[in-house]
Amino acid sequence: MKKKILAVLLATAMVGTMAGCGSEGGETPAPAETPAATETPAATEETPAATETPAATDTADTADFGSGEIKVWVAENVVDFTKEQIDNFSAAHPEYSGYTYVVEAVGEGDAAGNMITDVTAGADIFGFAQDQLTRLVTAGALEEVNPDYVPTVEAENAAGAVAAGKVGDTLYAYPMTADNGYFLYYDKSVISDPSTLEGIVADCEAAGKSIYVDLTGWYQVAFFFGTGCTLTYDTDDSGAFTKCNVDYASDKGLVALKEMIELASSTAFQPGSSAGDAVNYAAIIDGTWDAGTVKDVLGDNYACAKLPTFTGSDGNTYQMSGFNGCKLLGIKPQEDANKLQVCDDLALYLTSEEVQLARFEAVQWGPSNLNAQASEAVQANEALAALSEQFAFTVPQGNYPGDYWTRAESLAGDVQDSFKSASDDDLKAALEAYQADLQSYAK
Question: What is the pTM of this model?
Answer without folding.
Answer: 0.71
